[in-house]
Design brief:
The complex is a heterodimer. Chain A is an all-alpha fold. In chain A, 75% of the residues lie in helices and 0% in strands. In chain A, helix 3 (38-48) packs across helix 13 (225-258), helix 4 packs across helix 8 (134-147) and helix 12 packs antiparallel against helix 13 (225-258). The longest helix of chain A has 34 residues, at 225-258. Chain B contains 13 helices and no strands. The longest helix of chain B is centred in the C-terminal third of the chain and has 36 residues, at 263-298. The radius of gyration of chain B is 24 Å and the shape is globular. The chains are: A mainly alpha, B mainly alpha. At the A-B interface, helix 1, helix 4, helix 5, helix 6 and helix 10 of A face helix 1, helix 3, helix 4, helix 5 and helix 6 of B. Chain B: Residues 65-284 form the ABC transmembrane type-1 domain.
């Protein structure tokens, strides 16, 4: 058990140690004693690639995606759960079927569409589609059907609240735990998304972190192993720190997402 | 009350607007392109089924398909084996393991890191001349010459499989543990009283009751595995070498579309991938269900 935990951690450890050592030191051998070339490595890396820019871009996109997904999925789930209208069942089943379709299927069409709309090399095609997330809608609908009793809605109607006010004041607070759970998923998914920004973004200053990391490999920095390790460490350590505080919630959300059958 | 139901349309309208434009239309457009010789510029000329007949005889695509299955298969077997062993240890009533949340967090950590960082990290750790792994192994005297991990088809595929295992076994472990916590402890207590050993408890109680969860893990892992892209792309600089052993189906799709501008053919590759995914998912479903039926008859 402990061995496995160590195996999980060793690559990170090697990364952290090597990030502080000079290129020559790394070439001659491996120790667990940190070196003193951290600043030097940082200088070398920053001369070529600003990892922090990628960090900022990724954060910007992921936060917006998470907010859009949370709000609009709740809206859609509420619409599906508490109103009866023509075509409702068809639309719902159609949405579930589309949920099974892998993302790559529409990749080329998506690229062409973005080209036609003139939104290539912008964040719009990375952010706006978050409004339509079938899986989150499905999950939230199941959740709200069991937690929100229709009598609550009727009580609010009798009190004279408008339909959208009921949604914002009654439904959203009740859905919050489920929205939070799904938000963790959405955020991680958006943060780790590689193929979409790779295809859609061309300007280096707009690269997201995953794309920037790929760019790092092909650049001059790759010659200096210490700087390489440092670049990777910068992309990884903030996530590790965030995870330290949030691990309980993240793991619970995975468990909640899994037991849906 | 009835007149309020029209609000349902307002609530779902933004979703459907975006869904139609950004999800359904691209999928339909790709379908159309798969019957054309579109190159990304100019007009698309309809060529009928030519792209699909080419796909069936394309040795590169077949190789990519086999590679993807191999890499996923090795990874899945290892990952599930590890996750199940860990789950059995942690759920064992006799052992009463402590620190479950700590270990869960550590095991899950690799899954949270951006794949491109993981690819880069292992790319230099496994580097032939300067990689720390070879340096460590040589210092320990286990090998005399550096091994070129990512330059031999066999070791390259195994390396990628192992990296995937490293990334994903923690996730499977957490999901399996969630499934086990949903099983009533009465079963385990009864087994304990009846004197069942650990192996018997695992095989006769835990695994059968976990079937829906295991099916879930298998399907999601298979679908994800068939779409393997980031890791091979980044480790091989998009080439899929050595000898095409790390060329996966999505990497092939990506290169056909955005490197060689064969949009029409790449669209056919996308639909080929989709059909393969559907077939495999159906096989997994069927095999799980038919074995359930057999068991029912035995009882």
């Amino acid at each position: 058990m402990t061995v496995l935990a160590i195996v999980c951690f060793v690559p990170f450890l090697m990364m952290l140690v090597n990030a502080t050592r000079s290129n020559e030191a790394i070439l001659t051998g491996f120790t667990l004693v940190p070196g003193n070339a951290l600043l030097e490595n940082y200088q070398t890396m920053m001369d070529y690639v600003n990892v922090w820019t990628g960090f900022k871009n990724s954060l910007f996109i992921s936060v917006l995606v998470t907010i859009l997904t949370g709000y609009f999925s709740a809206l859609t789930a509420y619409g599906f759960a508490f109103y009866t209208f023509k075509g409702k069942n068809f639309l719902f089943v159609f949405m579930l079927v589309m949920m099974m379709v892998p993302g790559q299927l529409g990749l080329i069409g998506f690229y062409e569409l973005s080209k036609t709309l003139g939104i290539l090399d912008t964040y719009i095609p990375l952010i706006v589609p978050a409004v339509a997330s079938p899986f989150v809608v499905f999950f939230l609908r199941q959740y709200i059907l069991t937690t929100l009793h229709p009598s609550l809605i009727e009580a609010a109607r009798i009190d004279g609240a408008s339909e959208f006010k009921i949604f914002h004041i009654v439904a959203i607070p009740i859905m919050m735990p489920a929205i939070a759970t799904m938000s963790i998923f959405t955020f991680i998914g958006s943060w780790n998304n590689y193929i979409m920004p790779l295809v859609l973004i061309f300007s280096p200053e707009k690269y997201t972190l995953p794309v920037l990391m790929g760019f790092l490999k092909g650049s001059q920095v790759a010659q200096n192993l210490g700087s390489m390790y440092l670049g990777i460490a910068i992309s990884v350590v903030p996530i590790m720190i965030a995870f330290l505080f949030l691990s309980k919630y993240i793991i619970n959300s995975i468990s909640a997402g899994a037991i849906k059958e | 009350m009835k007149n309020l139901n029209r609000y349902g349309y307002f609530f779902i309208a933004p979703f459907w607007l975006v869904f139609l434009v950004f999800s359904i239309y691209p999928v339909a457009l790709t379908f159309y392109y798969s019957f054309t010789n579109y190159t990304g510029s100019g007009t698309a000329e309809v060529v009928g089924l030519a792209n699909y007949t080419r796909l069936l005889t394309d040795s590169f695509f077949v190789q990519a398909f086999v590679n993807t299955l191999k890499i996923w298969g090795i990874n899945f077997a290892l990952q599930m084996g590890l996750a199940l062993i860990l789950a059995a240890i942690f759920s064992d009533m006799r052992l009463k393991m402590k620190g479950q949340s700590f270990f869960r967090a550590i095991f899950y950590l690799p899954n949270l890191i951006t794949v491109s960082s993981v690819a880069l990290l292992f790319g230099i750790l496994l580097d032939w001349q300067h990689g720390s792994l070879n340096v460590v192994l040589m210092n320990l005297g286990l090998i005399s010459d550096p091994i070129n991990w990512l330059n031999e088809p066999a070791t390259a595929q195994i390396s990628v499989s192992l990296i995937l295992t490293w990334m994903w076994f923690g996730h499977s472990f957490i999901v399996i543990m969630a499934g086990i916590s949903g099983i009533s402890t009465d079963y385990f207590e009864a087994a304990l009283i009846d004197g069942a050993n650990r192996w018997q408890t695992l095989v006769s109680i835990t695994l059968p009751l976990l079937k829906p969860i295991l099916l879930y893990i298998m399907i999601t892992s298979l679908i994800g595995g068939l779409q393997l892209f980031d890791l091979p792309m980044l480790i091989t600089d998009g080439i899929g070498s050595p000898d095409g052993s790390l060329n996966t189906m999505v990497l092939y799709l990506y290169n056909q579309a955005f490197k060689y501008n064969n949009y029409g053919y790449a669209s056919a590759v996308a639909y080929g991938l989709f059909i393969i995914t559907v077939i495999f998912s159906a096989i997994v479903f069927r095999s799980m269900y038919s074995s359930e039926r057999k068991q029912a008859r035995q009882v």
